[in-house]
Amino acid sequence: MALMSVAVLVGFRAGEYKVLQGLSQNGQLDLSMMWKVKAELGKLFLEKDKLVDKEMTYGAIEGMVASLGDPYTVYLPPKQNAASNQDLAGEFGGVGIQLGYKDTNLAVMAPLPKTPAERAGILAGDLILKITDKANNIDRETAGISLDEAVNLIRGKIGTEVALKLYRESKKETFDITLKRDNIVVASSELTWRETNGKKIAWVRLYKFSEQIYKDWPIMVDNILVEKARIGNSYGGIVLDLRNNPGGFLQASVLVASDFIDKGVIVKQASSDGKTETYNVDSSRRKLLDDKMVILVNGGSASAAEILAGALKDYNRGKLVGENTFGKGTVQQPEDFPDGSGLHVTIAKWLLPNGTNIHKVGVKPDVEVKYEVPKDETSTSAKATADKPDNQLDKAIEVLLK
Predict the structure, then answer these.
(1) 287 given a catalytic annotation
(2) Which of 168, 176, 299, 331 would staple 124 via disulfide (CB 3.0–4.6 Å)?
(3) How many whole angstroms separate alpha carbon 3 and alpha carbon 396?
């Protein structure tokens, strides 16, 4: 009924109150107070030109949805909804931050690899308190802000600047970072071979579970199998690096998990209607069942990345090394309306094979290792490259080869 009410409200004017009132006679929705307040505003408010019915209607719906207290359930007026529908797997002008919430505070879910945010040292878990863009007259505190509004404010023309006021728990203070927007290309994965103590190790970095992973992952698996056959006993196993992976398509994480787990449930999706959908191992995969592996995670491992890490941990498929994951375990469904507005609503929660929900909790590593910034680095980001010191990766390889 609530969803129907939102759809009905869009586009109605004050003169059609009787129609709306008729829809509310069952007692589920009483709009009389809203209309009383609107009438008072019409009589008393100083700047009458700002009393625009359509904008006030959008504001009323936004407030109704916000009253649920779930920062991931939001109503978006047409402009914000259009921005949210941009494909994050493609290219856009931005700074390379995947956004989420810590409690109700806007937070960095993950800095994307090889982007201005990562190069500036922004970390997963940093709270974003304020967004400033002087060229566009933006000076916005983030209390109560929706994800889509925040994305819209942070993105912009390539080459322009946006300033963020951040809070990091380890610093116990706020600090400001100015970022120059760039063309952001979100890669899906990368495979690098590393040699340690006479063993060759496949370092597999999964950056995001985008549509591209459906194409890239099977090719990567085949490449690992070819090299594994070529080097024989020199093969040391796989380090599956999910650090700063903000998630994406759930089915993509199931695809990856299916190459490491023989059979069983990968994840369950418990919906608001009481139904539970189960995602099992894809029996057509299962190509890396015998490979030794370690999974690297940190506070930027979120959503579908946490599902993958949690499933591998539940099946004792490999040790988790690194830091506690982000804790995003709910599912949102977008609904678009004819006027261009939209509703993003939380419809389900994800459950690991053992039945636990990771929302606001995350997945705890078996071996906890905090990232250490190399002494010659000014950045504090846990960015990973093949030629720079990385204590978390070193520990993962050590655990793998034991």
Answers:
(1) no
(2) 299
(3) 47
